[in-house]
Recover the amino acids of this structure.
């Protein structure tokens, strides 16, 4: 999939990059035993989605040949429109988990 092949200087990523940087700093500087550190408004729905998908289905998502198929699956399962997020036309930007 080419989702991560976007230009890192794209303004659509500026918000999430700053927030992710703050979280990385927190992780480095604190002794917090948590395994996951959700960042951004869509991070928790994604974590919830992951727990609802079997390991086999999760791995199968990586085998989808078209990004559009992945985007559709995410939207149907979570309500998060990744295509809009990636294009910057979404009201906020997707979350991530460290």
């Amino acid at each position: 999939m080419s989702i991560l092949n976007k230009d890192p200087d794209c303004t659509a990523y500026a918000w999430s990059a700053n927030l992710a940087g703050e979280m990385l700093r927190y992780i480095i500087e604190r002794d917090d035993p948590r395994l996951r550190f959700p960042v951004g408004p869509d991070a928790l729905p994604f974590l919830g989605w992951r727990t609802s998908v079997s390991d086999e289905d999760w791995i199968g998502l990586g085998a989808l040949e078209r990004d559009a198929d992945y985007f559709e699956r995410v939207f149907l399962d979570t309500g998060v429109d990744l295509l809009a997020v990636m294009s910057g036309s979404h009201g906020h930007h997707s979350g991530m988990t460290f």
About this structure: The chain has one domain: 8-97. The chain has five helices and two strands.
